[in-house]
Amino acid sequence: MSIPPSSEPMIAYFGGTFDPIHYGHLRPVTALAQEIGLHQIVLLPNNVPPHREQPEASPAQRKRMAELAVQDNPLFRVDDRELHRTLPSYTIDTLEMLRAEKGWQVPLAFIIGQDSLLTLHRWHRWQDLLNCCHLLVCARPGYRQQMDTPELEHWLAYHLCADVSRLHQQSNGLIYLANTPLLPISATEIRQRRQQGIDCQDLLPTAVLNYIDTHRLYR
């Protein structure tokens, strides 16, 4: 389903474990916002990620770190709805909930990395995602461009969009490959640095690092 939107601006959602949130999350999506004219990005910290190891920091700590990371940036806000779930957090469930709340006139987008695009066919109900939103894909260092099968390549080509204006004119159904910076920063690297007593100042906002120090996280 895709119908012309009203004059309401597109809202983009960016999910992640954020254990902890860092510049590898924030800087590419900030560049994405500038590239396509986004005015709001909503961070969605995950509670129980279905495909990943469980977070070290608690849901409340990861929410607070996300809030601190964007506290002075009006582009961002934090939505903690997934942190209240006790079952695995599936993206399609959240997107269907958001679409029901926002209606079908508002363009909604979900931001993923190139690595997630390549494995999207393994996500729960992946073929329903574009019924709810656009997919905005940020480049990731070291990942190939080609999908696993000719069928997936065809699916990608069918939905691919290079015209930014269409993202704003259509409520869902498109995939946009963004020309965002490649930042080889990972939360795993930050946690390992912390355990080894190596400085992380260049990898994440100072307010987040101070919170990590205060609460003695990732030791």
Automatic annotation (TrEMBL):
Pfam families listed in its UniProt record: CTP_transf_like
Pathway: Cofactor biosynthesis; NAD(+) biosynthesis; deamido-NAD(+) from nicotinate D-ribonucleotide: step 1/1
Entries under CDD domains matching the protein: NMNAT
EC numbers, comma separated: 2.7.7.18
Stretches assigned to the Cytidyltransferase-like domain: 13-193
PANTHER family: NICOTINATE-NUCLEOTIDE ADENYLYLTRANSFERASE-RELATED (PTHR39321), PHOSPHOPANTETHEINE ADENYLYLTRANSFERASE (PTHR39321:SF3)
Function: Catalyzes the reversible adenylation of nicotinate mononucleotide (NaMN) to nicotinic acid adenine dinucleotide (NaAD).
Protein name: Probable nicotinate-nucleotide adenylyltransferase
Protein species of origin: Musicola paradisiaca (strain Ech703)
